[in-house]
Amino acid sequence: MGKIIYWTLENASPALQPIETNSLFYAENVVRYLKFTSAAAVRFCLSNSVTYILGNQFVKINSGSYFTVNNGTELECLPTPPGTKAVMAFFTTQLLADVNRTLSGNDKLLLNAPEAGAGSLHFFEHLHRQPSRLSTQLQRIAHQMAASGKDNPTCSHDLFFSLAENLLMDQRQTRQQINSINARSFSTKEELYRRVLAAHSFMHDQWDAPLTLHEVARYACLSPYHFHRTFREIFGESPMLWFRKLKLEKAKALLAQYNITEAALRCGYGDLVSFSKAFKRHWGVCPSDWTGMAKR
Asked: What is the CA radius of gyration of the chain?
């Protein structure tokens, strides 16, 4: 039997249809297919994964990731596996516009015309996989909702203002990354951003594979140099350097389960010497020292 918990600011119905509300929707073990038009929302997965169809694209939201959706976006939610937990935050256009105008407007305008419109607000719809203030906040709220086990029709404005602030700050960072790309038109910048993000996720999912720059660039449908340059413009470092760092991030967890040789092999290092040097250069301690520290 699935569990559904609903918190709202307006005592309104859940925003699974194109009805604008400021609300939170927690779902646990809800296995069903649903086709709908979404309000502006953030969809965060806590365990397993949730898959949506957006146009001709499959969007798989893994645990710890979230997907931002614009008001009016048509989605299909595919049945989820047992044990899946997710939380969705919905926002009205009015609340988002108010927060956005306050964060980005000038002081005189805010004083002289407090109710002035903020123009259209359009999210860049994509998966956010890196931890952020918003993902941390959503995870904390989801645990609170699950612990309470009750609907709450009288949430405070503080909660939704804070969520909107973190959402808009993430979107601002996304726009900055898009604008950092060296291309003439904004539509080209957005397409390059989508392709590089897809390759970024590919490397993240295939972290234990011996991927080459040519293979990852091919996945992004870009030439090796074009991919390399655009990745650096977005993330501030080369793709293969980031990939090596990711492997060393994973190595810490591996050393808690395997011996150093096995951890080195799983991270793609052919010998212990090169693995030990890379690990110490990145973490400041050698693998054997880290293993000893982790066992204390």
From this structure: 22
Cβ partners under 8 Å of residue 277, min gap 6:
none
> pLDDT of 201-216, one tens digit each?
999 989 988 899 999 9
The arrangement of strands across the sheet holding 57-62 comes to 34-37, 74-77, 49-54, 57-62
The CA distance from 296 to 294, in Å, is 6
Beta-strand ranges (E) seen in the chain are 3-8, 23-28, 34-37, 40-47, 49-54, 57-62, 66-69, 74-77, 85-91, 127-128
Distances (CA, A) of 164 to 12, 95, 139, 218: 19, 8, 15, 37
pLDDT tens digit string along 157-189?
999 999 999 999 999 999 999 999 999 999 999
Torsion of CA 252, 254, 259, 263, to 10 degrees: -90
Q: Can you tell me the distance from the alpha carbon of 56 to that of 37, in angstroms, rounded to the nearest whole number?
A: 15
